[in-house]
Each structure stands twice: as structure tokens, then as C-alpha cells.
Hints:
The protein is mainly beta. It has a single domain, classed as Ubiquitin-like (UB roll). Helix content is 11%, strand content 33%. The chain is built from one helix and five strands. Strands 2-1-5-3-4 form a five-stranded mixed beta sheet, with no helix packed on it. Strand 3 (32-36) and strand 4 (39-41) form a beta hairpin. This is Sulfur carrier protein ThiS. It comes from Candidatus Thiothrix phosphatis.
Amino acid sequence: MEILVNGTPHLIPADTTVAQLLAILELQGKRLAVEVNQELVPRSQFDSTALNSHDAVEIVHAIGGG
Length: 66
């Protein structure tokens, strides 16, 4: 199925979760925030949040500073 990730089309398998998408994109274990269709997905729900065809996913990397 096709989804948008930060505005770029990506083909992923059906029933892919947010956690699986992050693994596909080699982003697992990084400090980031994920929105699906403009709704923030808590990190605790990455494994249980399934993506659907044509979802718009935004991934933002956290950058530390001081």
C-alpha cells in the first residue's frame, strides 16, 4: 500500500505498524515524534498503531540543545 512519509510516497506492506515503518526506514531507537494524519502517536502505541493506505505520516527527529 502507499503512504506519504514527510510528503514523500512510500510503498509498504499492508498491516504495517508505526514501529515496523520505523524499522523499514532504519529509524528505530532514535529520538523522534510521529504523527499519523496530523494526530500525534505516543511512543507506547508505535507497536499497536497500524497504518492504512494513503495515510500521511510525519516523522520529526528530536535535537537536543542547551
